[in-house]
Structure formats: structure tokens, C-alpha cells
Amino acid sequence: MTGMAAKKTVQLLIEKGFHxxxxxxxxxxxxxxxxxxxxxxxxVLDAGVVTYADAAKVKYLNVLPKTxxxxxxxxxxxxxxxxxxVAQANGAQVGVGVTGIAGPxxxxxxxxxxxxxxxxxxxxxxxxxxxxxxxxxxxAVREASVEFxxxxxxxxxxxxx
Length: 161
Known about the structure:
Helix content is 44%, strand content 21%. With 161 residues, it is of the alpha/beta class.
């Protein structure tokens, strides 16, 4: 499923003349890796940054420390700043930010394991989401996140059904 959605995303990006960059935390580069599996990915992919540490999000993505302090690193606010920051740093029209709690530990009552926040910066417009995938296992949360990213990109780029 994800492979087809990634392929469709590449096609849509080519059609629009857009480039994409990724800022990933809990997915550890898996979103970008899925795009690279698609032929012609080099025509649309600018860069990907894995920023696991809070300080790396600040240094490389222009996430504001006060945003992390106020909302927490796993928040739509941080995911949105990640997406916008990576797009602007690379001159890309599309930026994707992913931050979450893949597990098996690290969750709280307010932010449980399986909670992932997403930011999509597309042609100047920022959209954010929070998904609760549940305690389905660390790698399953990561895979579900990647699938969500490509389904969402497809819709935001005008390729949804």
C-alpha cells in the first residue's frame, strides 16, 4: 500500500514541479527511504533530516525551544515547525515533519505510546495531524506513520480520490 502511495506522491510532485524534504524523529528516516524506493525520486527529493534529540530539532529545523517547552516535543506544533523548517532550509515546496512515541516505553497518560504528530508544509500552507495508532509495536507504529504520510500527501497534492 505505502509503495503505491509513495509512487503516486512522486508522480504528483513531478506534475507540480515541487520538491520535498523530510524531518523525521520516530520514523528514523523511513518516510524518506520509502520515497527513495520509487524510480524518479531524485527528480523531487531534496533532503531528509533525522532529528531524534530536541536540540537537533532546534539546530537543524528552526523549531523554537519555547514551542517544545510549551507543547512538548510530541505535538502538532513541533511537527508543523519541523515540516516548515525542513522545507525552508532546503528551498522545497513540500516539507514533512514526524514526531511521536513509537514505544514500547516513553508514553504517558496524555501522550500514550502510539501517538504520532505530523506536519505537512505544502506550497506555503501548513497542516497538522495527530494519530493514535495504539500499542501495536514499535515498528508497526513507524510503518503506520509512513502509510499515513503518503496517504495524506496524496490528498494534499490533489491526487486523492
